[in-house]
Amino acid sequence: MPFLTVADVLRLPVIAAGLPRVAAGEDQLSRTVRWVHVTELLDPASFLEGGELVLTTGMPHPADPTQLRGYVDSLADVGVAGLVVELGRRYQHAPQELVTACRERDLPLIVLARGVRFIEVTQTVHALILDAQGELLRRAQQVRELFTSLTLRGADPEEFVQAAADLTGCPVVLENLIHHAVICRTAGPRDGQVLEAWPRRSRTAPTPDRAAASGPEGWLVAPVEDRGRPWGRLIMLPHASGPPIGPEQTMILEQAATALTLARLTGRPEWDRRAHSSVLLDLLHWRYRSRTEARLRAEALGLPTTGHRLVPVVIDHGGTADGDTTVTGDTTVTGHLAAELPISGVKALVGDLSEHRTGLLLALARASAWQPVVERVGRDLRGTFGEGLVVAVGPGVTELSQVTRSFREAEQIADAIGPGTLDRPFHVVSDIGLPELLYSLRDDVRVQRYVEQQLGRLVQHDARHGSDLLSTLREYLVAAGNKSIAAKHVGLSRQAFYQRLRTIERLLGNDLESGAHRTQLHVAVTALDVLGGAGGTARPASL
Fold first, then answer.
1. Which residues of 124-151 are buried (b: 16+ CB within 10 A; e: fewer)?
2. Degrees (nearest 5) of the Cα angle 413, 418, 419?
3. Which fold does the domain 273-432 belong to in CATH?
4. Are 55 and 84 contacting, i.e. CB atoms less than 8 angstroms apart?
5. Domain locations in the chain?
6. 3-state secondary structure of 256
7. Contact 373/425 with Cβ under 8 angstroms?
8. Could you tell me which residues come within 8 angstroms of residue 90 by beta carbon, excluding any fewer than 6 positions away?
9. Cα–chain-centroid distance for residue 36?
């Protein structure tokens, strides 16, 4: 049963019998009634704690307007839910001074045209309040058990935030200390407008010591800690047309914030990095319903999009020694970039695209060159993690919706550039030649079959006889069919070299004087090299 509001109390038969009329504070009838207090004291505020609905006949009210205003001020200052005055004993109608004072303090003032038994009012309302409190306790136990079960099974932070959104029926956002929205979840279909101008709006809502309403939009805010230190906060955004924040929502958000604090003690704490990874993957596969939703999500993580050039970068670290990308402790390529880029003043999203790939989306001023920034990143990474690391750069774009295509091009470049290839800090599409193209197709069985059809007999002959005809063919192709130059490179006489060529022609059934045949063999030998077979290098290598 929900907690009673002033409006709920006015609908009760025991009050309705008094023909209640709201004389002031009409827009404050959604206030929660924590208790009902009957008093004829001139200064009852000292006996109140806030949230009470005060019932009075008005007998002690002073005639002096200034004192009457002071009476209202004392009630408003303590935070009572409303003031109910029964007419007929002191007043025949509500004094204008009383109405004006209540309006100025936004305090609900209800006048009863008929007398009612205050004892019946208190009994009825108190019984309902106690029932609601009991229901809240039962609800709190259910919520506590839910978040405890999530904690015990090591749930991801997204699950905690989604649970809070489902339980409250409102959007819930987990943000860090610099007001980046790490996770945003809603109870129904996603509403990207929740994150509109998020950092600016968030800074207007202070962080309370525990779950409480805060800021001009009436957000419910609960702090989240990390080992006793502030980490961020959990925020519930009430619906504009819905009821105000109540005790149940406060309890739920507080339980969720506590569970997240515990999760930071027991689980993986890289929540910011997970958020970056999620957005990058959503951009890579374009999982957003609209450009606006994508923009709001990126900007909520601190990435400026309007008026900036967006440069996607894919870092492939699968070619490092034993696939190890660790420097010290748990510092990975992703962690290293996440720590270093903010220090250098570079705005970017950094996250894991896969086990061996890190994604980087740079936001640079349109007038600035992107090459120096990417070169610094590439040299730093290759110097820290080894030469086997590949940095691939997609074309810079000005619209977030274009990032998907650019990121995929960067992935294709990373696929084509083998580990240890070309001592360059980064690679772009113009670096892809025939060796790189074939390297990107290295797992295609059609390429493997083509190599076997073209060179299989030659490789088998070398294996059986200990000869080196494949190297002879490679040098001949490198020399573009110039036999004299090729013979000199292999250290053979022209006559001996010609004899080898004739043997190769016989084994392969090809005419080496034919340009078409030489092209076919050139592709086959290059493919064999990048596949790492029979004298190959296991990476792209120009013939």
1. bbeebbeebeeebeebbeebeebbeebb
2. 120
3. Alpha-Beta Plaits (3.30.70)
4. yes
5. 6-125, 154-269, 273-432, 440-531
6. helix
7. no
8. 57, 58, 59, 61
9. 45
On the question of a common fold for 154-269 and 273-432, the answer reads: no
DSSP letter (8 states) at residue 420: T
Q: Is the pLDDT of residue 25 over 80?
A: yes
**Whole-number Å distance between alpha carbons of 57 and 88:** 8
Token pair, residue 184, equals 């945003």
pTM of the model: 0.66
Q: Give the integer Cα–Cα distance in Å for 349 and 52.
A: 50
pLDDT tens readout for residues 471-489: 889 888 888 888 888 888 8
Token digits for 307?
Answer: 């008026």
Instruction: Answer yes or no: is pLDDT of 532 > 70.
Output: yes
* Tokens 């190769």 found at: 504
| CA 204 – CA 534 distance, rounded (Å) | 67
The candidate with the shortest Cα–Cα distance to 387, out of 353, 355, 422, 437, is 422
User: Alpha carbon of 398 to those of 41, 367, 401, 414: distances in Å?
Assistant: 69, 12, 9, 22
C-alpha span between 84 and 56 (Å, rounded): 6
CATH topology of domain 6-125: 3.40.1390
Query: Which amino acid is residue 15, in one-letter code?
Result: I
**Burial class for 343, CB neighbours closer than 10 Å (0-12, 13-18, 19+):** exposed
Q: Please give the helix or strand (H or E) that residue 496 lies within, else none.
A: helix 494-508
Q: Look at 131 and 526; give whichever has higher pLDDT.
A: 526
What does CATH list as the number for 154-269? 3.30.450.40
Question: Which tokens go with 294?
Answer: 């994508």
Phi, psi torsion values for 209, nearest 5 degrees: -70, -30
The encoded tokens of residue 394 equal 């997609």
Q: Strands 229-236, 172-176: parallel, antiparallel or unpaired by DSSP?
A: antiparallel
